[in-house]
Specification:
single chain; alpha/beta; Rossmann fold; Dihydrodipicolinate Reductase, domain 2; 2 domains; six-stranded parallel β-sheet; 14 strands; globular; binds nicotinamide-adenine-dinucleotide
Length: about 350
């Protein structure tokens, strides 16, 4: 018997798209279809019915209806932040794998609950964070040791939106956080992959628009991170209304410097001699395809799952810790002036 015929053909995965009519959901439809059969979609948006017809799958307006009407292996979840936890909980209780947008969870408590449910059901919950699949960030992680012991990093990530934040991101109840949770999740996760968990983070929350200040949704956040080792510190600035869109991570080490932007990275010796320049070999979309293929291909891989849970728990804990501290300070101030 040939090796080919000895292999059992794996049936194609069946995917349910939850939030498919939104920005991220629409971006993922063609990629998911390469690796799975899309057997249905859940979205409450008025345009979702016509979109589902175009793609040839049934549209449901609630997860309960989808769970009753179609059989699927994995749900792709791309919904506003307030919807993540209740949807994921329901899906795990029904024994479904989940591949989802960030954040993995908003609070450490919810992250722990999801992990417990997933482990109990022997199911995965993977968070889509494209920097982990961008060859430039992979180069950075692999080559970090070449700059000696890192003692400082500086990470900036800015959008140049000309208007106040709108849609669900402008609603406290739906967004559950400002730019730190939304854009900052990516950066805190990148740092979780390179450095230990910070022992202390000092944060400044800044607002461009009064309505965002009123809703306690920061437009800009500036963070100073301290680590268990006194020889490492770092800072981040993340904002929505800068004059230009940019992302840059700079790490200084005892033997050189590493600079990373999504399109390319450089390694320099102390003093500035260029040691290596790395340029992203393909378009941005390659990372998205690689990420979705990887997670759909590892739904039953417990090692990948456990690593993912550990990393996401750290990322969630750091962000949750910053917001808790912020709300403690706010309450203290309110008490002092009441
Ligand atoms: N990785 C990235 O770079 C990136 C970029 C943008 C957004 N995101 C993340 O993607 C998620 C969605 O953001 P978006 O910008 O696509 O938002 P969006 O508003 O464009 O899309 C959300 C969709 O979810 C639908 N929806 C709302 N509640 C639902 C529910 N209970 N069940 C099913 N569908 C529901 C809405 O109708 C909408 O179509 C968020 O978690 C966000 O943080 C990630």
């Amino acid at each position: 018997m040939s090796t080919y015929s000895q292999k059992r053909a794996q049936p194609r995965l069946r995917a349910l798209m939850v939030g498919f009519a939104g920005h991220q959901g629409k971006e993922y439809l063609p990629v998911v279809r390469e690796y799975a059969d899309i057997v249905g979609g859940v979205d409450v948006a008025p345009a979702a019915g016509a979109l589902a017809d175009d793609w040839g799958f049934p549209r449901f307006t609630g997860i309960g209806e989808a769970l009753k009407r179609v059989d699927f292996d994995v749900a792709m979840v791309t919904v506003p932040h307030s919807e993540h936890f209740p949807l994921c909980r329901e899906l795990l209780l029904h024994g479904k794998h989940i591949v989802k947008e960030k954040p993995f969870a908003v609070t450490e408590e919810e992250a722990r609950q999801l992990i417990e449910l997933a482990e109990g059901a022997d199911r995965s919950v993977y968070t889509l964070l494209q920097r982990n699949f961008n060859p430039v960030f992979q180069f950075a992680r692999k080559n970090l040791a070449r700059i000696g012991d890192p003692y400082w990093f500086s990470y900036d990530y800015h959008f140049n939106l000309a208007q106040p934040t709108s849609g669900w991101r402008a609603s406290r109840e739906q967004a559950l956080g400002g730019v730190l949770l939304d854009m900052g999740y990516h950066l805190i996760d990148v740092l979780s992959g390179m450095f230990p968990e910070p022992s202390r983070v000092n944060a400044a929350f800044v607002h461009h628009y009064q309505e965002m200040r009123d809703r306690h949704l920061e437009d800009l956040v500036s963070l100073m991170c301290s680590y268990p080792s006194p020889t490492l510190s770092g800072s981040l600035r993340i904002s929505r209304h800068n004059h230009e869109k940019s992302e840059r991570l700079c790490v200084l080490g005892t033997g050189g410097a590493l600079n990373v932007e999504p399109q390319g990275a450089t390694l320099h010796s102390t003093g500035g001699r260029l040691l290596e320049r790395f340029t992203r070999p393909g378009p941005k979309t390659d990372a998205v395809r690689a990420m979705i293929a990887h997670y759909l291909g590892h739904l039953d891989d417990r090692d990948v799952r456990e690593d993912h849970f550990r990393r996401q728990l750290t990322t969630v804990r750091v962000i949750d810790g910053i917001y808790r501290e912020r709300s403690r300070e706010r309450n203290e101030l309110a008490d002092r002036y009441s």
